[in-house]
Amino acid sequence: MSAAGTSAPRSIRRELVGWLALGLFTAVVIGAVATYLRAREEANALFDYQLTQLAASVTGMPLATGTGPGSLPGNDALVVEIWNRNGVEIYLSQPQRRLPQTAERGFRTVTNDSGEWRVLTTLAGDQVVQVAQPMNVRRELAASMALRTILPLIAIVPFLAVLLWFGIARGLRPLDRLASAVGQRSPRTLEPLPESGLPREVQPLVHALNGLLARLATAQGAQRAFIADAAHELRTPLTAVHLQVQLAERATTEAERRAALGELRSGLDRANHLVGQLLTLAREEPGVIDRPLARVDLAALAREVVADAAAQAAARGIDLGITGAPAGGDASEAAAALVTGDAVSLRTLLSNLVDNALRYTPAGGRIDIGSAGDNGATLLSVRDSGSGIAAAEHARVFDRFYRAPDAAGVPGSGLGLAIVKSIADRHGATVALGPGIPGAAGPGLGVTVRFPAAAEPRSPG
Amino acid sequence: MRLLLAEDDRMIGAGVERGLQQDGFTVDWVQDGEAALLALQENVHDVLLLDLGLPRRAGLDVLATMRRRGDRRPVLILTARDAVVDRVAGLDAGADDYLVKPFELDELAARVRALARRGAGRADPVVTYGALELRSATREVRFHGEPVALSAREFALLEALLERPGAILSRAQLEEKIYGWNEEIESNAVEVHLHGLRRKLATDAIRNVRGVGWMMVKPA
């Protein structure tokens, strides 16, 4: 994987290690502070007790001022001062360090020019004994205790970071394996990736990936089948043409040659029609052409398509026309039946339906085209008096290249209804097959395309 | 020689029928699988030309059904499906030959003749009977080395009789060999054509077995 642009890609590993190290460091700092506070508390209690003991022990001792620290238990940081009831100094352990004399008894913390002091004043007989100790002694002790507790933890942090670095790499190894498994795929191998033995975090990704692969395989299979079918279907009219060319070459009489050439021409027409339908189908694939959507009046479209097909219908002796409303429609709305859609595609849809009806309706038959509103929906229908389609075939006639067995005698590409379905799908419309014109000679076929009320065509792509 | 052509495409069917008729075959054409199976039961055709994409009954299904019935007549598959797997599937289903569309009519006719020959248990394309030589490929007949001009029907009759010398063929059997479904059979047609044959070949090898039919006497 390479970084896109100039910024390096985010690394899960680096990020995890960073955050974990930060967390660890914070925990160590909090631990150090807590240990320090706790140690100071304990040191206070300990030294206060020591001061009490000292005060008790010096009471009544024969001491002379300035005798020096050596004569006293404790160290030089301790200051002992004794007065008599009249405030006359009896003893000063360190005359150069005088503490303020107070009448209050008990512990106090005072500050003078040599720092903070903890002072204990007691009354013993007619003497006032005052012992004091600098506070920084206690702080130093607490700090050193805290440091001793915390130092090993701090030493562990880098070790833990290294451990995390490799642990995370190990944990992410399935991703590397997955990446190489995906990387080795060619566009042709679409088998699912193995889902077993994957960590729970990666499984949804692989599962989704497999879903995509399956859909791709289906689409690719459909595409391949379509191309194979298309090639096969193209080969049929080409075979016919090829045969007619051979017959024309063999022909010994003018009549034979003319007959063969006539067949040749209709074979070419057929191949042309098939290629045209294939191109239409390819163009109607979603996302191929991005034409602007417009308000299309189906009634006007019907009139145009009927006008185009009128000559062909007349030549075949078929009565082609527009009726007021399709079954279930409201005749008063027949005047304009507006839908939002792609005008070119909708025209293709309708002309395919009319073309189909013309193919399967015998001479003397009838074809009705109608458009109407129905509860907000818009209906477009083409009904004929032709041979109809057996109900059992209804589901399959929309398949590409599928031709009902009864249709064998009628030339056609087998793509007309597939094109209709494709365009209807794109417009969110449904196509329903039903009975043809009631009371006509044949069973007939009625195709109704229903554009729902709020039908917004799917955006291309 | 009478062939059954099963092809659903009208244009191709008509073209093949026309071309094979020009080559001297009698052709019956059906457009779906069920009709093909029905026609096969008449037992009058020598070779079946089978398209695979037939409506109602798929070609391979027709083939499997006829083989299950014990029908051993040669079958030539005509199809646009040219992948090796398709050919293998066709041949494995019991077909004798496979021709991919589009094909040359001459090649089709040659393959049909080859199939018919093998179906009759022969490998030699020239049928020899005493001083008589018959070449199906060129529809040529020689008697004592001299070419003899025969009409299409006379040739078909002679071919049918020579298929198994010594076997007696009834009038109906002979009619079936030389007339397709849609052809009108003139009364006495078989006698008329046999008479023509006897005259042109100056031979008494074609014998009438009274009340039964006709046969070629087995050469001594």
Description:
Chain A has helices at residues 12-58, 135-171, 173-183, 203-250, 254-283, 298-315, 343-360, 416-426; strands at 79-84, 89-92, 106-112, 115-124, 127-134, 294-297, 319-322, 338-341, 366-374, 377-384, 430-434, 446-451. Mean pLDDT of chain A is 81; it is low at 1-5, 68-74 and 329-334. Chain A has three domains: 12-164, Beta-Lactamase; 184-283, Helix Hairpins (Orthogonal Bundle); 291-451, Histidine kinase-like ATPase, C-terminal domain (Heat Shock Protein 90). The longest helix of chain A is centred in the middle third of the chain and has 48 residues, at 203-250. Chain A is rod-shaped. In chain A, α6 runs parallel beside α7 (343-360). By secondary structure, chain A is an alpha+beta fold. In chain A, strands 2-1-5-4-3 form a five-stranded antiparallel sheet. Chain B is an alpha/beta fold and 220 residues long. Chain B has two domains: 2-119, Response regulator (Rossmann fold), CATH 3.40.50; 126-216, Arc Repressor Mutant, subunit A, CATH 1.10.10.10. The relative contact order of chain B is 0.12. Chain B has eight helices and eleven strands. Helices cover 40% and strands 21% of the residues of chain B. In chain B, α2 packs parallel to α3 (59-68) and α6 packs across α8 (189-201). A five-stranded parallel sheet of chain B has the order 2-1-3-4-5, with helices on both faces. A four-stranded antiparallel sheet of chain B has the order 6-7-8-9, covered by helices on one side. Chain B has helices at 10-22, 33-41, 59-68, 84-92, 105-119, 152-163, 171-178, 189-201, and strands at 2-6, 26-30, 47-51, 75-79, 97-100, 126-129, 132-135, 140-143, 146-148, 206-209, 213-216. The A-B interface holds A 231-232, 235-244, 246-247, 250, 263, 266-267, 270, 403, 405, 408-409, 411 and B 8-12, 14-16, 18-19, 22, 31-32, 53, 55-56, 80-81, 101-105.
